[in-house]
User: Fold these one by one.
Assistant:
Number 1:
Amino acid sequence: EDDGKVIEYLLKVLVVGDLGVGKTSLIQRYVHNIFNREYKATIGVDFAYKLIQISSNKVVRLQLWDIAGQERYGNMTRVYYREAVGAMVVFDLTRQNTLEAVKKWKADIDAKVRLQDANESPIPVILLANKCDMVQGSLNPSQLDAFCRENGFVKWYETSAKDNINVEESATYLVKKILETE
Ligand code: GDP
Ligand code: MG
């Protein structure tokens, strides 16, 4: 029934992964549609917002948390994770060790934040294989499928913040998954 009221969801989504994998670049591309080659290592936590119209009376205000410099320690405090309802774990397709670090990031998320449901389920997390513009054809889809099953990711995407590949698609998918849990 349509009583003219607009429902707005505020969703806190974390973007984690090793230093230099492209977290800030993906957020900048997604929110502002820009790519800036310049490397900027701010210290602290940055926020970015994106308003997504889901339907005529449903709006999502997506709050993206960028970890900006603290990723060098390989884990984050519980305060950072608090009330997050979804996450993106990013690795760099040109650096194998950043994929190995993905397991550690996923474990950190699962240990520090849970949904408020009866089972305290893990929050939905997607895996982003970034900088796909640099590595034509080196990706092994069935291997990444298996990796996602084993490590509890809802889905993976190859992305490029530079060439704007799958940036919007992956975020849209995650939001859809999050709304299924709400
Ligand atoms: P962060 O430390 O995870 O936030 O990574 P940044 O967003 O700062 O990116 C690190 C470096 O990788 C910067 O020089 C970016 O320009 C570059 N970069 C990020 N995403 C991409 C991408 O999709 N393709 C390419 N070729 N370079 C990227
Ligand atoms: Mg950054």
Number 2:
Amino acid sequence: MYEGLLKTFKEYLPITEKTPMISLAEGNTPLIPLHNLSKELGINLYGKYEGLNPTGSFKDRGMVMAVAKAVEDGAKAIICASTGNTSAAAAAYATRAGIKAYVVIPDGKIAMGKLAQAIIYGADIISIPGNFDEALKAVREIAETEAVALVNSVNPYRLEGQKTAAFEICQQLEKAPDVLAIPVGNAGNISAYWKGFKEWHEAKGTTLPRMHGFEAEGAAAIVKGAVIEQPETIATAIRIGNPASWRLAENARDESKGYIDSVTDTEILNAYKKVAAQDGVFVEPGSAASLAGVIQHVKAGKIKSGETVVCVFTGNGLKDPDTAINETTVDIHKMSDLEAMRSHLRQGVAKL
Ligand code: F0G
């Protein structure tokens, strides 16, 4: 039976005899070949579908490790700032470990599914009028004076857990990809993957990929080289103007000879719809930044034809049903009898 990341990758993680081996069977997510997009782009494209983690995002990988260490150190409560996914994972793993989660979110700027998760897992939810960056500043200060463990990705245990996705990709492909394409928000995940690829390279002799990170244009602090006070993007998950792991991300880019570039909301929405409609994978808008970036980089020649590319799909599309409904033209055919349905079907099927 698969028993989650702490057991599976024990020797690569900071685990002691005292670490509680909590698990929701996180990790072990599929690497899905994207046949139609591969053909269109002339590359071998795969999606690492992190939306199939227990709370629907990659955050479970880091949270299982951070919560286990918090409990090991005697914490009775954890706290995090979040654009939604971190708070869902924190809430679930705190419940699992029998401790309390306090989650601080930007008012009105988190996707509905994520808020629903924090509620149902039983977190204490604090909503502030500011954005994610302000929420993160607040929880960092609070964690210094109060009896709560901070579980944002400034907590190094988060990156330790998250690096396991790079291990899985190397196992699934039986090699490292040429390019790893990944959305960048607070910049923890790109840093964690790079650490993971380097460790697997050391242990197993795999090659190292180029890291291609993508910020949303309205929140592209690293690309622009300046903090963005009022970040804006449809991809609320990565609506972050002052990434905490800024330097680590630049280091991953430079060491791997990769890029951190930006993608517009239009490019994000195009990729978001494309991967669902052409290859049957529903990801959240923030996750589609990775595919939007791949499309941009293939055109720009930064990704060469025939290369093996893995897109990290960080979160499940079901997290944010409002965007799916509001950003598409939906054709819902209202019909009240079987005859109308038959004739509708016949017309449709005749065109196939
Ligand atoms: N994709 C999704 C779906 C996310 O939720 C996040 C970050 C990222 C990408 C970016 O990852 O921050 O490590 O660069 N979400 C955080 C949260 C900020 O609070 O859930 P990153």
